[in-house]
Amino acid sequence: MFAELYDRHERVVYRYAARRLGVSYADDITSETFLVAFSRRESFTGGPDARPWLLGIATTLMHKHVRQEARAWKGMLVSDLARVDVDHIEQADARLDARTIARKLGRALARLPAGDRDALLLHTFGDLDYAGISEALNIPVGTVRSRLNRARRKLRAAIAVVDEDKEENHGRTFAPAPSAD
Which of these, 10, 17, 23, 15, lies nearest to 63 by C-alpha position? Predict the structure, then answer.
């Protein structure tokens, strides 16, 4: 029975952990998740889908790795963008804009309260619906809605600041023009 649970959900737990903390921690989190799940298998009262229960365990374990997660968010897109070959000025501008957005988004994610971040990442990376997040975090569905709304609003605001800066000075810092005295 437990072997079937492992076979069915191991890849989901691994992908979720890898997206949140990086591949280097995903194996450990996945192993720990199933170790905890096995030791608590008698207490599982969920329905046919154990995914919310397992992702809830994984989320709790990831709280031990908060600092690594914050660093992973800051470097998430930047490391991928560093491999892009820049041939044109437009591509360079887009790359700089993407780096700026990635940094701001990473900082905004790191600043989110843990509950808001967990709800958002369970929805985004764990592919859980509101009811699944509710079960995973053991909170009411209304709280899930509030947390997701708040997290999305804060992330949109972080990205909007980048857009406003870009509109004001076209993404560049200029020295003041010499006076014509």
Answer: 17
